[in-house]
Amino acid sequence: MDFDYPSLVLSDPGGKVFDHPYLRLAGRSGDRLVLPRPSELVPLPKGSQLFTLPGRTPIGWDGKKTAFISSEKVKLGNREMDSTALAAFLPPGYIRTLLPATQRKPKAPTLPLWAYSSVGWKDGQFWVTGLFIDSNPHWNPKYFQNEQLLKKNVKIFLGRNPQNRLFQQLSRCALEYRCFAAKNVFFRRWECPLPTSPACNAECIGCISLQPSECCPASQERIGFVPRRRRS
After folding, report:
1. Any bridge partners for residue 42, and if so which?
2. 124 and 159 in contact (C-beta within 8 Å)?
3. What is the mean pLDDT of residues 37-48?
4. 3-state secondary structure the chain
C-alpha cells in the first residue's frame, strides 16, 4: 500500500471521536469491504455532519496483516474503551462513493435511511469518500446557517397564514428536517419545493418518507393532505 490512507475514526460510548492508532480507513461497496481509491478521498466539506452508528463495530485496514480488521475495543494510552462506528453525511453538491465499513452487532438498532459515508482522519482534518459533482453556489451551506433569521421568518409566515397547512408542512421540513430547499421558501429565494401528494407509486428502494412495516424507520414524514389552489 503506497498511498498514505487516513486513519480509521471511531467514537467512544459517550460520542467522543478518536482516530485509531494503526488501522486505516476502509469502506464498503455492496457486501464487499474495500480500500477507497485515492481520487475519491476529499477533505470533509463544510456543512457536513458526523453520525455515530449505534450497534456497529468499525472495521479498518491493517497494513501489516494486509487484512480488514474489526475494532470492537481500542486502547488509547492506558485506556481501553468500546468503539462505535462513525459516518459522515455530506452536503448538497457531493455524492458519497462508499459506505462505512462496519460489522453489525446482535440486536443492533435499525438506522434511519441516510447517505452515510466512510470517514477518516489525516493531516489534522477529516477525510471522506465522496465526489464533488455540482458547483451551483446556491447550495453552499453558508447561505443556510442563520437559524435565528430562519425561525423569525417561519414565525412571520405562519403568523400571516395561520390556516395554511402547506406552510406548516414546509416549516417542519425547514426546521426539523433541515431541508435546504424548504428553507428557501422562508428566505424567499431560489429553488423552492412544493410537496403535493401523500402517496407515491415510484417504490424507490431506500425511500426516506415511507418504508414497509417492520423494515426500518423513515427519516421524514410525508405530507398528510393534497394541497388545493385557493379560488379568488
Report:
1. 128
2. no
3. 93
4. CCCCCCEEEEECCCCCEEEEEEEECCEEECCEEECCCHHHEEECCCCCEEEEECCEEEEEEECCCCEEEECCEEEECCEEEECEEEEEECCCCEEECCEECEEECCCCCCCCCCCEECEEEECCEEEEEEEECCCCHHHCHHHHCCHHHHHHHHHHHHHHCCCCHHHHHHHHHHHCCCCHHHHHHHHCCCCCCCCCCCCCCCCCCCCCCCCCCCCCCCCCCCCCCCCCCCCC
User: What is the reported pTM?
Assistant: 0.73
- Report yes or no: 87 and 116 within 8 Å, Cβ to Cβ: yes
Distance of CA 4 to the CA centre of its chain: 26
Distance CA 118, CA 51 (A): 11
Q: Give, rounded to a whole angstrom, the gap between the first and last alpha carbons of the chain.
A: 69
Enumerate residues 6+ apart whose C-beta is below 8 A from 10: 17, 18, 20, 58, 71, 74, 83, 84, 85, 86
Phi and psi, residue 32, nearest 5°: -105, 135
- 103-152 pLDDT, tens digit each: 999 989 888 778 899 999 999 999 999 999 988 888 888 888 899 999 99
pLDDT in tens, 145-169: 899 999 999 999 999 999 999 999 9
Tell me, what amino acid is at 211?
Q
Q: Is the dihedral of CA 137, 51, 175, 225 positive or negative?
A: positive
